[in-house]
Write a structure and sequence with these properties.
- Helices cover about 40% and strands about 20% of the residues.
- The protein is built from twelve helices and 15 strands.
- The strands form five sheets. The chain has a five-stranded mixed beta sheet, sandwiched between helices. It has a four-stranded antiparallel beta sheet with strand order 6-7-9-8, covered by helices on one side. It has a two-stranded parallel sheet with strand order 10-15.
- The radius of gyration is 24 Å and the shape is globular.
- Mean pLDDT is about 90; it is low at about 1-5.
- The protein binds adenosine-5'-triphosphate and magnesium ion.
- The site of adenosine-5'-triphosphate has 18 residues, from strand 7.
Length: about 425
């Protein structure tokens, strides 16, 4: 779409803002920007009017997942055309179909009383047709008709999606190999992990302390195939947002949640990367429990699971990082050295000990967590991480659990509060 670029205060945009204000009721701190504004981060609402030169592809990039592009124009034709573009893009769902908006004449002295508007929500994580190694499952937002709210749909991708991805990753593999691997993944491996995830999400809802339950997704419904395995799951959407947290607050909330997951629910997440964490109104949350394991689970009882977890661990980014850091002396604690390529709570502790130093590096968290690497707080957190990964006595580390990490963070908090306590 090519129109004049303008930053003026458009009456049409004001109407669009009023009209869409009620759409995401219950969500505080939604970020809104006009198209012509140069917003530093992704936003939840982007407003454009017929003075803007906007593109659906750019709107997709500038919006957070679940964010809305709202377009208002004096021309019904243009709004219909915009709706068509948004539908054809495939990454959006048109939530407010083209419609007339009216306002008091005072607000629209130049253009009369009538305008037209369309609003669409970004429901896909990546634009249709694009590929990424970041995600394995087909994850998108869908409207739950019963409540009118958006929920997350996570499902096993189609044969076509998986075959294309494998082909990209292994361009030299024969078509037979690709077909064979695709069948295994779609028919067995991914449904097994999704079925386990549903079980873990239910356990979390049952056993987490009440105040932490909203920081992991609640499962809402499943569809199983005839073999009983889950192929599609719906869960609550932990929408990114909220007031920016300090680095210490991020660390405190994440370690409190991890301690409860380990000690109360008695499960290990096993893939606690920043991609699998969220920052919401409710605080820091964890998602993607597909690779989780019960603390007392004996995987050797199931040849299938042992094999799947062995394969998963050899491909796992965290395990690779742990291996490299051990080799280069950045991890010396025996706790982590013996956890390498194993199912062990220490794997989660390793992730968190690392990520509390750089939560701001995740693009999704821009503007949601304030980190000043030069600050005393950041320095203290780095020391805490070092004392976990490279303790004075590597054979007998003193900080060995998520709860120890949480206590270390509490000590920093007290230090920061009174400014003089020795740490
Ligand atoms: N309940 C949820 N609330 C908010 N965001 C979610 C939720 N579930 C998934 N997401 C978003 O979707 C992305 C992909 O989902 P998820 O991590 O569950 O699957 P995946 O990455 O495909 O699985 P894996 O990490 O095992 O490959 C997440 O990184 C997150 O951005
Ligand atoms: Mg994930």
């Amino acid at each position: 779409m090519l129109f004049r670029l303008s930053t003026r205060n458009s009456p049409l945009i004001r109407i669009a803002q009023r009209k869409t204000r009620r759409l995401d009721r219950g969500h505080r701190y939604l970020r809104r920007a006009k198209w012509a504004e140069d917003a530093a981060h992704q936003v939840d609402y982007l407003y454009a009017d017929d003075g803007d030169d906007w593109q659906t592809q750019d709107a997709f990039v500038r919006l957070r997942w679940g964010g809305m592009i709202v377009y208002a124009s004096r021309s019904a034709e243009e709004v219909r055309w915009a709706a068509q573009q948004l539908r054809e893009h495939g990454g959006f769902r048109v939530d407010l179909p083209p419609q007339t908006v009216r306002s008091a004449p005072l607000l629209l002295p130049m253009i009369g009383r009538r305008g037209y508007l369309v609003a669409a929500r970004k429901v896909m994580l990546i634009p249709p047709g694009e590929y990424t190694d970041r995600f394995t499952f087909d994850v998108r937002l869908i409207r739950d008709e019963a409540t009118g709210r958006d929920v997350v749909l996570k499902r096993v991708p189609s044969y076509k999606q998986i075959a294309e991805r494998l082909h990209r990753k292994f361009p030299d593999a024969s078509p037979e190999t690709i077909l064979d691997r695709t069948r295994k993944l779609v028919d067995r491996v991914l449904p097994v992990f999704l079925t386990r995830e549903v079980g873990f999400l239910s356990l979390l809802q049952r056993d987490l302390p009440r105040e932490l339950k909203s920081r992991v997704p609640k499962p809402l419904g499943v569809e199983r195939s005839s073999d009983g395995l889950v192929r599609t799951m719906q869960m609550e959407w932990l929408r990114l947002g909220g007031k920016p947290l300090s680095q210490l607050e991020f660390a405190r909330q994440a370690s409190t949640l991890l301690a409860a997951v380990h000690d109360q629910v008695k499960i290990i997440h096993m893939d606690l990367r920043l991609d699998n964490m969220v920052i919401t109104n409710e605080g820091v949350g964890f998602i993607d429990f597909g690779s989780a394991v019960r603390v007392d689970e004996d995987l050797s009882q199931s040849p299938l699971l042992s094999k799947l977890f062995d394969e998963m661990m050899s491909a796992c980014q965290l395990q690779r990082m742990l291996g490299q850091m051990t080799q280069t002396g950045r991890v010396t604690s025996k706790l982590f050295i013996s956890a390498h390529q194993k199912i062990d709570r220490a794997v989660d502790l390793f992730s968190l000990a690392l990520y509390i130093n750089g939560p701001h590096k995740h693009p999704d968290f821009a503007g949601l967590v304030d980190v000043d690497p030069e600050s005393k707080m950041a320095h203290k957190l780095r020391l805490l991480t070092a004392s976990i990964l490279r303790p004075k006595n590597p054979d007998r580390p003193s900080l060995i659990s998520a709860d120890d990490l949480r206590r270390g963070i509490d000590r920093i908090e007290r230090y920061m509060d009174n400014g003089k306590r020795r740490w």
